[in-house]
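Internal QA ticket QA-208
Title: Verify multi-chain structure generation after dependency bump
Assignee: T.L.

Test input:
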Amino acid sequence: MSENKFIGAPVSRIEGALKVMGKAPYAAEFPVKNISYGFPVQSTIAAGEITAIDTSEAEKQPGVIRIITHENALKLPAGPPVTNANRMTRANPVLQNNKVLFFGQYIGLVVAETYEQARYAARLVKVTYKAEKPRINFDAFAAEAYKPEVINAGYPTDTSWGNVADALKQADVVLNETYDTPIEHHHPMEPHTSIVLFEGDQLTIYEATQMLEQTRQGVANTFNIPKENIKVLSPYIGGGFGSKLQPREHLLLTVMAAKMLNRPVKTVITRQMMQTNVGLRQHNRQKIRMGADRSGKLLALAHETVTHTAMNEEFVEQTGVISRMMYAVPNSLVTHRVFHTHIQVPRWTRAPGETPGSFALESAIDEMAFALKMDPVAFRIKNEPEKNPENGKPWASRSLIQCLQTGAEKFGWNKRKMEPRSHQQGRWLIGYGMSSASRGAPYREASARIKVSNKNKAVTAVVEMAATDIGTGSYTIIAQAAAEKLGLPLENIKVQIGDSSLPPTPGSGGSWGAGSYASAVAVVCEQLKAELRSKVNAQFIKGPSVADLMIAGNIKEYESTGTAKPSAGMANYAHFSFAAHFAEVWVDESLGIVKIPRFLTTVAAGTILNEKTARSQIMGGVVWGIGQAMTEESLLDDRYGNFVTRTLADYHVPVNLDVGKIDVHFLAEEDRIINQLGAKGVGELGITSVAAAIANAVFNATGKRIRQLPITPDKLL
Amino acid sequence: MKPFKYSRATSVSTAARQVSANSQAKFLAGGTNIIDLMKEFVERPDELVDVTRLNLSNISTLAAGGISIGATAKNAATANHPLIRQHYPLLSQAILAGASAQIRNMATNGGNLNQRTRCAYFYDIAMPCNKRQPDSGCSALEGVNRMHAIVGWSNQCVAVHPSDMCVALAALDAVVKVQGPDGTARTIPITDYHRLPEDTPHLDNNLRSGELITSIEIPANNFAAHSYYLKVRDRSSYAFALVSVAAAMELNGGTIKQARIAMGGIAHKPWRLTAAESFLAGKTATADNFKLASEQALQEAKPLAHNAFKIELGRRSIVRALQMALGNII
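Actual output:
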């Protein structure tokens, strides 16, 4: 795609200046007349019933307008059973009963004239409970795990082919290990926020959301409001990572309050509520059994996951799916089991499935390579599958071997010694580790409206779509695609997104955002150009640009709306992005300290739409992967069901000092199947398998194999 | 947070009188801890007396030798002060090992001494906590206690003091100068300033009602050439210590004239290792002797369910800190 002028170019974010000047309004920052402030009241038990709520002292406080609890809440119709299809959009009635299902559950909303008044009064609400002993401890309840009908994103719960048990008996080398990844939280910088404003029967919502349409539908279904009457605005979003995919309960509480009070209400949740109320990545316990022959051919792979969900909703991360497609495995078993706990319902968390799954699989592959005395890069290449082993579909594009080879060369992998503890410098043990990474590359239907105008022969364009930019660069890649396809300078393109009344898109999630947005823009640009061409009755020496047509036809304004859809043939292929990670770690063994001075990632994800924002995406993924490997863990007290890691001082996301040099290389890859532009996603690929590369490097440095993340100092003593 | 009255003190004595006259009043300096605690409803003062404009931020040498560090001097200014860096690099290192640059720019030295534990149960008002609410119980004793004390704790409280700065101050035999509401000034050795929890975990220190820290004094010493603050933590910055060690030695050739060792992250107060210090006095400064000294340390340790690793990690950290202090950067 080297003929592109704009697509792929490392263009800086077009909204960057607004953001650094504080002029890009985030959800909490829209001035609304007569606003009031909501602050949630949270349960202080994890299981049981509310027997009484005494709001009398709270109500007496200055500025308090209303305290809404299940006793006086708007009555809402019961929601339908939750399915994968309706999880984001179904009616989700809040405050309809006295049941408590997890610690920190919203059990009320205080509305007051100021934020401080609301927060203070919320503290004064006295709640009496009939508490039950909560189900929290993983080990205590894991034995109850059952087979769910389906897991997240509609993946089958179990798959198998061949016969793993027989193959393991015949294997020369067998591995049987269990890997634990803890509960993690998303913690985007911007807290979840809602401003809700009714004007007659019209509802305007300012919300930090990745998904405008789903937010609108969820509110419509919960409150029985026609969705046409609801407008969701989310022009700038300070990170989401999956925690802002669905309309969350703070929004539903805020809508309820605005409706009951007939007054605009704003609710901004606290960092502590981001631990308890907006989802989490669940603790996954993964048992891997693997067999190989002496030559290094994999004979069998079983990947069996046990995890937890909430009492009232089944959500099961697709943890094992990476083991279905990564390697040529003649005998395979991948299963998922789940049990219920009084922990809030888990939710999509950057690369759900692949992030924990790749830690187990790519650690086990490293263990097997070591047992076989094979180089782990060579071992992976030897087991490269020609087609997707799960269903025999050909790869639309798969350049993993190129990622591995290029990465190994750029990293200097040949300097690695296979034997652990063989590279020491002073007190530091130095190790190299690597992993293969993959993430599904979904592509979805999206629409756009493009308006071109011609003012004194200066042709400019506005692109409108109900898309979101969660800090990823959507504004910029949309502008690049439009500039490319319209043949206009980048600065002549204006991008309007973050408004649900614009043409619909699938939103930002699942790594489909960039490819879906940019392909829609490309398709509609071409449609617009063809329409203009048919309107302009003129001869051109060479193919006319949009500007040529507008000027030649003396057309002042023109607009076209259209939709890009997955091709009929897309489903005949397997669609994944690939990467390879290489890590260098230095371990101060006596104190258990690990440094990661160098990390290198090679990526093959089809057409890269903007090398700069894509690089930032991959780097961000690697940084979270470092967090997953080294520092991040949400801890629960089994007795109470509360999180004891309640702040960013307790929940350790990596700091600058934890992150060394990160090198990202994009490999040229052409994918003619995925979409019009050949673009696969990079939003989640970057985090996948990072933790395994680091843990593998720690093994190479120290000879210690850590199978329970994170690798804190005490685990290395 | 609870509504409160705010006033700006004009003199130490009026500030002390104001706070002593109202049991619900608190001093406010940098606010990096108390404001968080107020937001969380852990602290609920109805009056804050701002002491940041009392001209207590001076850092200067004392006529009799040593240094005086003003109570409201910022942590960052203290750590970066030429006198501190030259004569008390241990203190400088310890301060810079704590918190974040932004917090150190706001936080004061007096506030650093008076900051409260970061025990998660203390912060969560839904949880029992004897420190927050006497006689409600200690949630950490049988809860998640990986970050908690291994020495000096009681069944009432297993919290640790979070400061890095105070660990260095303990090693350097600092004294805390305070002034009470009646104008009386007194000095408290830093090692007597903070308390063990015993049966009164709600009391962090031995200040009397209304007493305000005015300065911290450190005597002159010969440790500057051989001191080191080592902090082992779950991430490289902005994390509380799993264990930390402030180590300082005065050497005479290869012989240790005297040594000072204090630890953080293991007790309700900075923990001086006097047995290890005595062991080292007169010994040659060798790795073997450091190892033997570390074995003298923490013999009284009683780990909780999740923090037994702190004993071994602590001993190794003592050895490492002494090696680093010696200049044996390995």
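Spot checks passed. The two ends of chain B are 50 Å apart (CA to CA).
Status: verified.
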